[in-house]
Write the structure tokens for this entry.
Amino acid sequence: MPIRPENRHRYPADWPQIRARIQARAKNCCEQCGVSNHSLGGRLRDGRFLHAEAKEEKRLQLVWPEPGERFWCSDRSIGRRELLRIIRIVCTVAHLDHVPEHCDDENLKFWCQRCHLAYDARHHAESAYHARRAGRALEMFP
Ligand SMILES: [Zn+2]
């Protein structure tokens, strides 16, 4: 997740160093699904990432598809090609407890967009559940 402007002041002054340390720990790959940061490719329905194939070679330079286009992707592990929507993997550092001030290593994860969103969706669903429960409790005991 990009840092929201309203939360920027909550990050410690040495955030760039913290971020770099977590990125190095993760060897610049998502700590959940293992995809390399800045990879170009597409995801199968089951979430597996396939690397984009080059479109052509022009003057000894490979031409790659752009994010948003549909193009052929493949991976040695599955041994076939798939026509997928191209994305660029961008890993960011996530706070497991969503508290920007809490920068202990065990609270931080280097995650791709997909893993970050999946975690946040679960967290938001749980928060909404607890908020609803709390709301009901207030209705029962006003
Ligand atoms: Zn991931």
Observations:
- Strands lie at 40-43, 49-52, 56-58, 61-63, 70-75, 80-85, 87-88, 92-95, 108-111.
- The longest helix spans residues 113-140.
